[in-house]
Amino acid sequence: MQVQENSQQIYEKYPRKDASCLIDMLQDVQEHFGYLPDAEMQRVARHIDIPVSRVYGVATFYNQFRFQPLGKYVIRVCRGTACHVKGSLDILRTLENELGIKAGQTSKDLRFTIETVACIGACSIAPVIAVNDEFHGGLTTKSLQKLLKSYQKNDRQSEVQHEHV
Amino acid sequence: MNTFSSTCFENCWHSAENPCPKFVTCIAQGQQCSEGNPDPKLLESLKRSLLLIEHDIPVILVGMGTCGLANGAQAVHDALKAECQVRGITVSIIPVGCMGFCAREVIVDVKLPGHPRISYCEVKKQDVPLIVETTLVHGEVLEDKLLGLYETDEQDVWTALPILDSLPFFAKQQKVNLENCGVIDPESIDQYLARGGYSALSYVVNGRTPQLTINDVLKAGLRGRGGGGFPTGKKWQFARDTQADKKYLICNADEGDPGAFMDRALLEGDPHRVVEGMIIAAYAIGASYGYIYCRAEYPLAIRRLEKTLQSAREYGLLGKNILGSGFDFDMRIKKGAGAFVCGEETALMQSIEGRRGMPRPRPPFPATAGLFGKPTVINNVETFANVTTIFKHGPDWYAGIGTETSKGTKIFALSGKVRNVGLVEVPMGVTLREIVFDIGGGVPDGGVFKAVQIGGPSGGALPESVIDTPIDYESLKQVGAMMGSGGLVVMDNSTCMVDLAKYFMTFIQSESCGKCIPCREGTKRLLEILERLTTSYRNEKTQEESLLRFQGMVYLERLASVIKDTSLCGLGQTAANPVLSTLQYFREEYEAHLYERRCPAGACRELLTYTIDTEKCTGCGVCARKCPENAIIGEKKRAHYILEDKCIRCDQCRVNCNFDAICVN
Ligand SMILES: Cc1cc2nc3c(=O)[nH]c(=O)nc-3n(C[C@H](O)[C@H](O)[C@H](O)COP(=O)(O)O)c2cc1C
Ligand code: FES
Fold first, then answer.
1. What spatial distance separates the first Cα and last Cα of chain B, rounded to whole Å?
2. Least confident piece of the model among B242-246, B438-442, B646-650
3. Does the distance separating the beta carbons of B422 and A85 come in below 8 Å?
4. How, if at all, do strands B59-63 and B289-294 pair?
5. A63 Cβ under 8 Å from any chain B Cβ
6. Quick check: B619 and B634 in contact, CB under 8 A?
7. What pLDDT band is residue B423 in, cutting at 50, 70 and 90?
8. Residue A2 pLDDT > 70, yes or no?
9. Model pLDDT for residues A99-135, shown as the tens digit of each residue
10. Cα–Cα distance, B566 to B592 (Å, whole number)
11. Chain B, 455-514: which have a CB under 8 Å from a chain A CB?
12. B146: helix, coil or strand?
């Protein structure tokens, strides 16, 4: 119910029946929920008075929109040219292998999501990945594994702490 | 810090609601009228303090663009703040944009009162106490971390130290559009004004007619920096000549070329310059509303832009009756949603209208029927920055830089296998060699230069033999590349050109919007041809597949030219360029893949063979456990073996082996 109320604000911000707001609204909804729930897409469609199919059509066209919730750690692997030249494909493969998921997927325990992006904008330290919003550059497959371990360890620790609280 | 709003607005009648035409001139040249009297001395000293010529407390400027942040600038910033607080030193710490030297981030500048500005590089959190101790406490330069000093007119005790502009990275550059990036606080409209900002706008709206403004741009010879190189003045003229009740202006900040970051650096480092250029353009064509279409992947740029628009409105530089000229113009930011094709102008407009970003055929050109069917001018971020420059220095000055057909300077994002990764601004007409070797410092780690990719996925890879080509729109086309937006990716001998072509094809293929068949299907077929070249013969199950490999090569060029000739938009029309240019210059590499089934650069995994050195292998079993295909067998504590048939060459065994026992060839 709480969530419903908050997302109400998004709808109040935009005039009804103005289809040019569609992308802005979807962006706000995604920011709010972390992804685009079906019900919200229908609500957006009603709000601006267009068929749901068009909302869905737009949402699937753009890479930014997701239809599943994200993991706790979102790992964005840069696949820009500078990173590619410095071996980002190996980084991606290693990551996929270690976590047992493919790019675009979220692990079953909702811990990790792997996404690929075209240039994070940190070409000077290629190859780069960003875990949530923390950048890690100059990676090798070896240093990546260390990094992953440290995240997995931190994660377990924070979990233990939670249980104690 | 004091601002012009607190110093000027209170003493003179200028305000956002009732703007004075002389507001900017007053700041630039001293008081212009006799009404009210902002103390001229007060104004002058405010300006000097904003320019960091005269100030009482030390100022620290930390490079906090995206590249700086990725290198840990936030931690450095926080450490500086904490350290100064602990020691009880009063300083002002200002985040600035990227000064261009990304390879040496984090860059921290310290400006002590009465001394030239010191630029430190590669600063880590741990270095902060020493910097504070040496420079802020003792007033000395910490030479270990010194990049250089800013040039000043005044004589100083530090004359023996290097000057920034004399460093090889800066010496051949001509910083015009980047002059403020990394130098001023991008969020401070006052610093921008103090450096002569908005004087171009003031000159135009209160001194030139729209037609004369367009004439000046034509005279300057400015061509679009977004890739195509269309003369900006001509585009404006079309829009101006079209009658309509409403016209729009769009700034294209979608920067989709992976590996290019010029627009981002401009927006993060000097957003006012771009906004100023936009207002001038709007005035020239008679637009009343504008959009900045910025990629959502640039959150910092979007935040800065929002702040910029807000402060421009507060200062009466945006909104109703701009600088008392009677001209109204406002704009807003639209966030892109991650589609490369939305950089294409007609697709971008579809996206602003809330639709799928699919290009449409032209004509009608946007200048006659664009956004919401109205005449629309769309220009690139850097183009607008150049507009500001033209009216700041005059069209003749501007036309004096560059070559016959390409005027002015161009910003390049230099990255890849090159020492001085960063942002460089050079006059048109310098050669690629000068950029890669003189400014870029050449290839690091003993590598050998192989090629430089210019123009991103629409451009081409140029080898050593043509690297003396001067950079201008025409010359680059002649050698099979194009100016593009300005990404330069340097490659050394460990990069495989077939793999590079495949990389771009994968990118284009997945970004094709799917509207027209040549692009949607053609790029897929092209990609298949390249994939066959890099697939191991073990994976070619039938003889027919081997034949397809050869057949593909036979048809490659024909297919490429069909895609080029028949695609709807620029995405498809240029899609084959990376393939054609690599084929032109690196044919023997294609042949090695095709006939000999080997990859000379050792980059195409599938064409490699993995074996285990039985001497080195201790039989620890790590590789066998890590192998996703169970292709490694062996008894415990005995040397292991790789089953070639099963091996998918994922490289995991080599990565995980602690004894270097995995051999690749
Ligand atoms: C597939 C494709 C992608 C493009 N991406 C961009 C881009 O990211 N940024 C940009 O400024 N122009 C891009 N353009 C060029 C624009 O269509 C347009 O020509 C440009 O914004 C015009 O501005 P200018 O005249 O200032 O160069 C792209 C074009 C195509 C065909
Ligand atoms: S190419 Fe990876 S950060 Fe730019």
1. 63
2. B646-650
3. no
4. unpaired
5. yes
6. yes
7. very high
8. no
9. 999 998 899 888 999 999 888 878 888 899 999 878 8
10. 31
11. 456, 487, 489-491, 495, 500, 503-504, 507, 513
12. strand
CATH topology of domain B609-664: Alpha-Beta Plaits (3.30.70)
Provide the Cα torsion B256, B257, B263, B268; round to 10°: 70
| The CATH number of domain B498-596, selected from 3.50.50.60, 1.20.1440.230, 3.30.360.10, 3.10.560.10 | 1.20.1440.230
Write the ipTM. 0.90
Measure the CA–CA gap between B464 and B442, rounded to whole angstroms: 12
Q: Contact at 8 Å (CB) between B83 and B75?
A: no
Q: Which of B71, B258, B417 sits opposite A125 (nearest CB)?
A: B71
Write down the pTM of the prediction: 0.93
Given a cut of 60, whether residue B1 has pLDDT beyond it is: no
pLDDT digits (tens, 9 = 90+) for B613-635: 988 999 999 999 888 888 999 99
b/e per residue B2-29 (b: at least 16 CB within 10 A): ebbbebbbebbebebeebbbbbbbbbbe
Strand B449-454 relative to strand B460-463, pairing: antiparallel
User: Is residue A150 packed enough to be buried (19+ CB in 10 Å), middle (13-18) or exposed (0-12)?
Assistant: exposed
Type of residue at B636 = K
How far apart, in whole angstroms, are the C-alpha atoms of residue B175 and residue B188?
A: 20
Write the CATH number of the domain with boundaries B189-399: 3.40.50.11540
Token code pair at residue A103: 């790019």
Q: What would the mean pLDDT of B125-143 be, rounded to a whole number? A: 93
Sequence-separated (6 or more) residues with CB below 8 Å from residue B424:
B100, B169, B173, B411, B412, B414, B435, B439, B440
Residues of A in contact with B662 (CB under 8 A): none
What phi, psi does B184 have (nearest 5°)?
-110, 165
CA distance A39 to B157: 69
Helices (H) and strands (E) in chain B, counts: 27, 18
**Separation between Cα atoms, residue B390 and residue B361, nearest integer Å:** 32
